[in-house]
Design brief:
By secondary structure, this protein is mainly beta. It is built from seven helices and 35 strands. The strands form eight sheets. The chain has an eight-stranded antiparallel sheet, covered by helices on one side.
Length: 543
């Protein structure tokens, strides 16, 4: 939704802000039936609020009039922060222990594994994992975990893990401060705050030379002459995952119904909402759904597609669904479309067919596009596309209320998620956004939602100031990282009235023109190559 500055920041947010201060797409036409709006719910009360940092912990630098970069520390390392051996559980009662993959399971399964460990001479403990309440899911027990030992350092835990594996079990080592349940765990927080009453520049999205050729954030920021930047959207198989609109051009189709942010007027308007796309191609009297834009046909990362995807059309983060019959559009922003069997048509800027192929892989012409098809959709395309004929391609982006979103030249949409704050209240749409895994195996939910991870977040406060936030994680003794509930509480404590989660983990990174990389990315190999980013430009945005 579009923020209207009407809700006063909480006293907690005021304290934090004091510390911060101290130191081409076709036009959208029509809309389908109105989808259900994202549910709102009272704030989850399962975990205590995050501790507000004292003024002395904040270190601030003014990057430009109206732009402040601040870093501060939350929480502290505690005596209970130890390394432990985390033993995996089989998905079936008779499953082999040495190839078990589930991080948690039902109490009966956890007790079974613990009993087998005791029979081998180990002293395991079984612990319950709680999941906090979200806007569309109540709090409760997510599952049970099995652990062995408490060690002062990782090397001792690794040695113990070797013994567990030698005895015929699978697992890994975990640092308990990263379990996501300690509101006072040590965290390093980095905030870019942009006051557009003083800042005359703009926020814009950018990517490498093409969508399928990724670049690191420091390189993109330097090439664009940007003042600062953060990572943005998920990516896999060279493409963006979910809806991506840049400067009004639709470059990736939506994961239907997932969260996203619409950026207009150079970042002065930020609309947090859920988004869908409806894309069709018509030839003669026949109309066919276009399943995606700039991605590999048949492979739908994060699911949430259209037209019979398996195993589900509901969003499921980090899960790849499949569809043996698809049409995918490629634009010139993708340099090397995939090759293979199927069908393909090449279109000029007016969507007129210039070539029909029985294999796939042609490069889209400047100003034009290609349509790749596989399976039964390939048969349809070959039967209906004729050289010289004009196809009717309609592209629509719809918001969470089912209304068409105008794709003006100053519109950028990045679909990420989940939502964290709506109307000044914590409102995480965990189920609708697909971060709660379907089925019995809740390993992903535990690792991604409950446990602490590096996080990148975007929001806006009651004064209309932009908040670009990165929290380090997965670094014992430096920063534990946040669970999704903790990320929402942090954004609320910073005064956000609207906020959502961006890509995180090893992708979380913040740079400034004067200092380069500000945080400590978690990947051992350093900063990742990214699909796209958000950059602050002191003047007109590059590209």
């Amino acid at each position: 939704m579009r923020l209207t500055p009407r809700v006063a920041a909480s006293s907690a947010a005021v304290l934090v802000l004091c510390a911060v201060t101290a130191v081409g797409a076709a036009p959208a036409t029509g809309a389908p039936e109105r989808p259900a709006a994202s549910p709102r719910a009272p704030e989850a009360a399962d975990f205590s609020p995050l501790t507000i940092p004292p003024v002395a912990s904040a270190q601030s630098v003014v990057l430009a009039p109206g732009v402040t970069r601040t870093s501060f520390v939350l929480g502290r390392a505690g005596a209970d922060d130890v390394w432990t051996v985390h033993v995996n559980q089989p998905l079936a009662a008779d499953g082999p222990y040495d190839r078990a993959t589930a991080a948690l399971g039902a109490k009966e399964r956890a007790d079974q594994v613990a009993g087998a460990l005791r029979a081998k001479g180990f002293d395991p403990r079984v612990e319950r994992v709680l999941i906090p309440a979200f806007a569309d899911r109540p709090a409760g027990t997510l599952g049970w975990i099995v652990r062995i030992g408490r060690y002062a350092d990782q090397s001792a835990a690794t040695a113990a893990l070797a013994q567990v594996r030698a005895a015929g079990f699978a697992g890994d080592t975990r640092y308990t401060a990263q379990d996501g349940t300690d509101a006072d765990a040590l965290q390093r927080v980095f905030v870019l705050r942009v006051d557009f009453k003083q800042f005359t520049g703009r926020l814009a999205s950018d990517f490498g030379p093409t969508i399928d050729v990724h670049e690191k954030l420091p390189d993109l920021a330097t090439a664009a002459g940007a003042l600062a930047g953060i990572n943005a959207q998920w990516f896999a198989d060279k493409g963006s995952l979910g809806l991506y609109v840049k400067d009004g051009r639709l470059l990736s189709a939506a994961t239907q119904g997932r969260s996203g942010v619409r950026i207009t007027d150079g970042g002065r308007q930020l609309d947090v909402d859920t988004y869908t796309t409806r894309i069709t191609v018509g030839a003669g009297g026949s109309i066919r759904e276009v399943d995606g834009i700039n991605r590999i046909p048949g492979e739908i990362w994060n699911c949430g597609g259209v037209g019979g995807d398996l195993p589900t059309q509901h969003p499921q983060h980090d899960l790849k669904c499949t569809d043996e019959s698809e049409i995918v559009r490629f634009t010139p922003e993708w340099s090397a479309p995939p090759t293979g069997a199927g069908a393909e048509v090449v279109l000029d800027r007016n969507d007129r067919v210039t070539a029909v192929h029985r294999t796939r892989g042609a490069k889209p012409p400047a100003g034009g596009s290609t349509l790749q098809a596989i399976g039964e959709s390939a048969d349809w395309l070959l039967a209906h596309a004729r050289t010289g004929a004009r196809l009717r391609i309609i592209q629509r982006v719809l918001d969470g209320s089912g209304y068409a979103v105008p794709l003006t030249s100053d519109t950028t949409i990045v679909q990420v998620g989940p939502t964290l704050i709506r109307d000044g209240r914590i409102a995480v749409n965990a189920v609708a956004d697909g971060i709660i895994r379907q089925g019995d195996d809740q390993t992903f939910t535990y690792n991604w939602v409950v446990r602490g991870n590096p996080r990148t977040m975007l929001g806006v406060d009651a004064q209309g100031r932009l908040l670009m936030v990165v929290v380090d994680g997965r670094r014992a003794g430096w920063s534990a990282g946040l669970g999704v509930a903790g990320a929402a509480k942090l954004m609320k404590s910073l005064g956000a009235q609207e906020a959502l989660n961006l890509d995180g983990g090893g992708s979380s990174v913040m740079v400034t023109a004067g200092s380069g990389i500000i945080n400590r990315p978690s990947d051992a190999t350093g900063t990742r190559y990214l699909g796209n980013v958000l950059l602050l430009h002191a003047g007109a945005a590059a590209r």
